[in-house]
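[User] I wish I could look at a protein chain and see how it folds. I have put the entry right below:
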Amino acid sequence: QVQLVESGGGLVQAGGSLRLSCAASGRTFCSSGMGWFRQAPGKEREFVAAISWSGETTDYADSVKGRFTISRDYAKNTVHLQMNTLKSEDTAAYFCAASRRTLDPRRVWYGGGDYDYWGRGTQVTVSS
């Protein structure tokens, strides 16, 4: 069992930065692929970024590539999402997720159905 708690959201002006954190509890964190998703009002949840179980592989949605960076700290059981050059279209609730899939420690997962545990989310609002 993995429990996830996001933090770091808030209100920021366009062009600014925020760093989201996801604190994970449970012994399986080190063997879990991790991901960030977001959902804006009236829109479907969408993939933002993912990092593999091993930490070797990361990938991003095209809309955030070059602006967002995902990382993980095994010692602190934490995953971060550094968000730079924020745009109004980045406004959404951001969710952290953990996958139990251990097929390949270097693999990342893109679909919501690939993840087994979810946090409750943290709101990011970017004012233009």
